[in-house]
Specification:
single chain; 2 domains; alpha+beta; globular
């Protein structure tokens, strides 16, 4: 029996093979181009990281030499500041926020320290006010979890090989958030995520005072029992803000807890352009010591 395919059938098979081959080649080219694009992006990221390191070194040097720190940071706390070279070849934008404009969360663990008791008392008062204001399901459980981490090391928070967990206590908002996540699951309290915790607390264990002049309106309202509507209208963070607000409304506060002078503790982010894309990095300024550089990548 003659098994030779008719001419039309052979042409059909050949066309099918050709189409399959073209499809495979097209897919392979697409994969290859995607890989090359990924390599190019990685290359840009690496170069941008080097550029960020250069900017970071320059900024760190300038901050150490700059004399009017209070004026500089008070301005940066209000709004980002752009900097541009004289020839316009490069520009960066710096924005900062105060790290100690909240109550040190670690003061919750100072109940039995006679000298630190006033700081514990104001922190506990704030925690209780937050629990009521935001209707937390089980504030006792959350407090226990926080104290466990502040004290002897937490059974609730997994330790990681990170600077976030190298010191005793709660030293970052990220660490605090991990505690909140576990509390939320155990207490079935979805509302805890709606509390603006970073507007109430600071996460620097060594902090000895509150930067009262740069507190959030939410914190001022709860600490001094002033209606939020009034605070939003009258409170303007800045140099001398707390003293003026207290004078206006007849409030009293402990100057051993609320600093009378400027505290140079700031978290800053810097944005810059590279290869027609925007990149960012962050750092911390602690009393003139610039550290904790972190490259945040493309934005």
């Amino acid at each position: 029996m003659d098994k030779t395919h008719p001419p039309k059938q052979r042409r059909g098979i050949a066309l099918l093979i050709t189409l399959v081959t073209i499809t495979i080649i097209t897919v392979m080219i697409g994969i290859l181009l995607g890989a090359l694009d990924s390599v190019r992006k990685d290359s840009r990221n690496t170069t941008a990281l080097l550029q960020a390191n250069t900017y970071y070194a320059d900024i760190a040097k300038l901050l150490k030499e700059f004399k009017e720190k209070e004026l500089l940071f008070s301005t940066l706390y209000q709004s980002p500041i752009p900097f541009m070279s004289e020839d316009g070849a490069f520009s960066i934008i710096i924005e900062c926020k105060p790290l100690l404009a909240g109550v040190n969360i670690n003061w919750l663990g100072m109940e039995h320290d006679t000298k630190m008791y006033p700081k514990y008392a104001i922190t506990q008062k704030l925690f209780d006010a937050i629990a009521v204001e935001y209707d937390l399901e089980d504030p006792g459980m959350l407090l226990e979890m926080l104290l466990e981490e502040i004290g002897t090391g937490s059974k609730f928070v997994e330790k990681e090989r990170s600077r976030l967990f190298q010191k005793r206590g709660i030293i970052s908002f990220q660490q605090f958030e991990s505690i909140l996540s576990r509390y939320q699951m155990q207490a079935d309290d979805p509302g805890v995520g709606g509390v603006p915790w970073n507007r109430f607390f600071a996460f620097v264990p060594e902090a000895e005072a509150i930067d009262g002049d740069h507190m959030s309106a939410e914190l001022v309202s709860l600490l001094f029992d002033v209606d939020m509507t009034i605070v939003k209208e009258e409170w303007q963070a800045g140099d001398g803000a707390l003293a003026q607000f207290a004078l206006t409304y007849g409030l009293e506060y402990d100057t051993k807890i609320f600093s009378k002078k400027f505290i140079e503790y700031a978290q800053c982010e810097v944005g810059f352009d590279y290869a027609q894309e925007r990149y960012r990095f962050s750092f911390v300024d602690m009393e003139g010591e610039v550290k904790h550089f972190e490259f945040l990548g493309r934005q």
